[in-house]
Amino acid sequence: MDTDLQGKFDDLLDHLGSYQKVGVACSGGVDSTFLAHACCRALGPDNVIILFGDSKLQSSELRSTIEERLAKDLGPEVQVRKIEVDPFGQAAFVKNARNRCYVCKKYIYTEFLDYLSSLELSVLFDGTNRDDLQDERPGLKAIKELGIVSPLVTAGFHKEDIRRAAQALGLACADLPSNSCLATRIETDTAIDDQHLRAIEAMESYLHDRGYHGCRVRPRSNKVFIELLAEDIEKIAKLQERSSIIAYFQENGYDVVMLELGGRKR
């Protein structure tokens, strides 16, 4: 790491070291995995409980491999707890209004806090970083209301800092594309159901199998919008590739297949 980044990382470890035992909300993405790694370094893996919200909002592939993924970056002794959650039991979540993420985050983190309370723990960390504070993220309101601690914000980490630090530490998560739950693909005010989510998962899995990792698929009536990493735009522009993908989506009921030309950042 360069001097500035090393200084941030040292500050992070110092901050984490002021706690005795903590829980870390971990989605398997680079932000929360990097934070969990830092916690294990500062406190030792025996004093870190990793909490993963196991629900239908995640892909089946992620749900089945989360322990293996985290063990690569946190070590075989990592304590991962898959907390089964069911956001579909929250009527406001199913309604899918603009506050959906707030409702979901508050429900899931309350479940995490309840679990930690059963272990006589009260501290829950999450992987929010400084860049997240600049976006409109209803979930941040839930984090504040529940008293969740965001150490990456305190230590001044932006997204690029996290990726650079994760790469310097040799973490497998360093290059993972940013991701979010499947419900984010559904248009606001369109009710969420499991059938919707599984269809989106299947379409994204199809693109993953073609090499488009980090893609997102957003159905809208008889149209579908595809978002790819910027470096994959050239690949999909080739006629044969494009034709195969169009045929797949049309076979699944989408007459119009549209591509976000700006591309996604990792």
Describe the structure in your own words.
The protein folds into two domains: 3-175, Rossmann fold; 193-259. Helices cover 46% and strands 12% of the residues. It has helices spanning 3-16, 30-43, 60-74, 91-95, 100-118, 139-146, 151-154, 159-168, 194-209, 233-236, 239-251, and strands at residues 22-25, 48-54, 79-84, 124-125, 216-220, 223-227, 256-259. β2, α3 and β3 form a beta-alpha-beta unit. The radius of gyration is 19 Å and the shape is globular.
Topology:
Elements: H1 3-16, E1 22-25, H2 30-43, E2 48-54, H3 60-74, E3 79-84, H4 91-95, H5 100-118, E4 124-125, H6 139-146, H7 151-154, H8 159-168, H9 194-209, E5 216-220, E6 223-227, H10 233-236, H11 239-251, E7 256-259
Parallel strand pairs: 1-2, 1-4, 2-3, 6-7
Antiparallel strand pairs: 5-6
List keywords for this structure.
Rossmann fold; 7 strands; alpha/beta; 2 domains; three-stranded mixed beta sheet; 266 residues; 46% helix
Secondary-structure element series? HEHEHEHHEHHHHEEHHE
Q: Average pLDDT across residues?
A: 95
Largest sheet: 4 strands, parallel
Low-pLDDT ranges: none
- The third-level CATH topology of the largest domain is Rossmann fold
In short:
This protein has helices at 3-16, 30-43, 60-74, 91-95, 100-118, 139-146, 151-154, 159-168, 194-209, 233-236, 239-251; strands at 22-25, 48-54, 79-84, 124-125, 216-220, 223-227, 256-259. It is α/β, with parallel strands linked by helices and 266 residues long. The relative contact order is 0.13.
